[in-house]
């Protein structure tokens, strides 16, 4: 019996990289899987290879996301797991070349809206549909963020902007969804060897001795997040380390009038 035996899962961006590896791992763990991807050729090939069902959709289009979830539920009968993984960077589609410094003054409006459409709006649309599908029955939602959503990342600040948004959404929704029997967690890897990085950049990193993460390592973190039962966590994945939830530091609470340096009862001692 696998850890996800009998579960029904949807994975976006399943035609390559992290999505492909995770969809395969879910199947190996006993789940039935629908992969969603904008690239029909890649999506169909992967689905045939790993034994999944393929649905084509553009994650930035809310109507297509709704239809993809409808088709997934029709194919699977229900939905227990939804992994919003599809994403892009400013290196994709020729917007920047590997090694080229980021220059916000040169970033065009069309591509800026495209990257937000996939990385932020697409995650929102997917989470919304997942909650609609799981409400009353429970389930697990995962969203691919990044270490760039937890730190300052000068290499691609717009990508970092989108991943900070994903982290904020997941942490904000975590407690309330848990009360409804739905967990939601963010997957925050370092640099993964996927098409998102690009062949030239991956080669340069390897030549410099920088370790890249295999997509299968992200799939392992996804299984841990699903089976762990926690909600609102941001799972960090780094080479040579076991995936684990990130520890957020608390901030000082407000001061009472006239009490210099003192925290009032009920101050923000919780981690935020």
Structure notes:
The protein has a single domain (8-245), classed as NAD(P)-binding Rossmann-like Domain (Rossmann fold, 3-Layer(aba) Sandwich), CATH 3.40.50. An eight-stranded mixed β-sheet has the order 3-2-1-4-5-6-7-8, with helices on both faces. The two termini are 37 Å apart. The chain is globular. By secondary structure, the chain is an alpha/beta fold. The protein has seven helices and eight strands.
Strand order of the largest sheet: 3-2-1-4-5-6-7-8
What is Rg? 19 Å
Q: CATH homologous superfamily name?
A: NAD(P)-binding Rossmann-like Domain
Oligomer classification? single chain
Give start-end ranges of low-pLDDT stretches.
none
Per-chain topology:
Layout: E1 8-12, H1 17-28, E2 32-37, H2 40-50, E3 53-56, H3 62-76, E4 81-84, H4 109-134, E5 139-144, H5 157-179, E6 182-189, H6 199-207, H7 215-228, E7 234-237, E8 244-245
Parallel strand pairs: 1-2, 1-4, 2-3, 4-5, 5-6, 6-7
Antiparallel strand pairs: 7-8
Helix pairs in contact: 1-7, 3-4, 4-5
